[in-house]
Input
Amino acid sequence: MKYITTIGLEIHAELRTQTKMFCDCLNAEEMHPNINVCPICLAHPGTLPTPNEKAIMHVLRVGVALGGELASVTKFDRKNYFYPDIPKGYQISQYDQPLVKNAKLECYVGGEKKSFAVHRIHLEEDTGRLLHSDPSTGSAGSPQASSGQAITKVDYNRAGVPLMELVTEPVLHTPEEAEAFASNLQLILRYLGVSYANMDKGQMRIEVNISIRKEGEEKLGTKVEIKNLNSFRSVGDSIRYEVERHEDLLKKGKKIVQETRGWDENKRITFSQRKKESAHDYRYFPEPDIAPLVVGDHALGEDVLKEISIKDIVTSLPEMPIARFERLAKEYDLDFKDAELLVQQKEVAEFFEKSVSEAQELDHSIDAKKIAKLLHNFLVSDLYGFLEGDIIEWGALKITPENFGHLVVLFARGEISSRVAKDVLREMFETGAECQVIIEEKGLKQVSDEGVLETVAKEIIAEFPDAVVDYKKGKEASLQFLVGQFMKKTKGAANPELAKEILKKNL
Output
């Protein structure tokens, strides 16, 4: 029996704002618990929430970027449930009038471009963070209880942080599609500057809704939710496990229970947490302390928020990752993986394009596609290695696009060897010095004078007679050894191809 898998995603992303969603507390990482708190986010009686204009703007930007329908009127609602990390006893969220509906996200899955429907994008407040102790070690920030039993403490620094939730339609069917959707959404959020979306810090969390049905059946199967997945790998692996579990149950004639499950990263299995709630279980009703907001070309709300132009949002959007990927691949004749790697960080893509532009300005005779490929190779093979791919470190890079482009032009002209280019790049990275200055100070300009190279060749032949004998016996590796010694003697300044030819002529 063949089964069809249906997947829907719920993705939460903490938004980049100076303050929390409904108060003036800082929205910032804090080592000490319960520092960024106030009577509003701690739900003291008599306090009133005030919506964060910046957070609303961020969600609208995402909605516009994904081609969604912006609400003409939106409101906040109370989502009622009791849990220790929610001081109010309810969460301020959005129910029937979200900021954005009917959007779509395009991405490549296995080299094929696909489009996935997004049901809604809304805004809410985040919860606090629970810290659970280990009864034997007292780990996770909580001391061991005197009884030896585990205890739990609550940190409310995160409570009230603006949280965007994006809900897809149930239109995904494979783990690969789910991973691609989530990773591309992360890129979009970073390109827009609305969220850092670091999953290891909990700034982006993914929940998977999954069901399977027999091929030929139209009605979706029983839905199971997997909560709080914190990596793309976990998304894919948890789906694969659940599909196998569901199929095994159905083959044995057992029923699938609608429930919420967690993912055990160590055991690589899901586990039951609680029976799945429905919307009516949360007793949604309009938030009485926040008036509905009017969304239009001139204003967002009255008396509460400053004027925000929707047209300004549209014109301020940067080029989206998929558009940049397709353009780079076409414009510079880059293959799929090369172009994909460049767009993974907005800063990297911008650095690359500025470097190409600077290189072309320096030498119009060099083909743009050739220079782009050379720049990409040095970027990925060398510069990435120096940085170890760290986003923060990239922002502190001492090498300018002008200097990087200049170095690659010198290499393309044959004025410096590959070995010299790599060594100079390392010094540029460490000191920020210009490549031309380094090359001139250390005498690294490539030597192509045949008279000079012939003298060096004779010295190498005299120093390594055994290698000469081996080459004459037909061992090509010996010639490469001699070329290596040649480059060593000239400190990488010799033209390697010319050095090889001169050696062969003198052997």
